[in-house]
Amino acid sequence: MRVITNRRLLDEVDAALDDDNIVRFGQVLAEFASQTQFIVITHNPGTMELADAIYGVSMADDGVSQVVSRRLPRHEQPVAATA
Asked: What CATH number is given to the structural domain containing 50?
């Protein structure tokens, strides 16, 4: 079992990034992932695709909010750099 003591919260740090830079951002996160747990608050679909787990809030028709979580399959290959 891996114990990570470093945790970092990143709030919308990817908001201004284009697709190529989202890939680079993912590479940086992957580089440090063995030492640090990142919690990334984002609306960017490209960043969400890099996640191990996603948490969100959904509101049903009756107006009641609920927390939704999904664990995503591990990536088989690291994020590739684009030219």
From this structure: 3.40.50.300
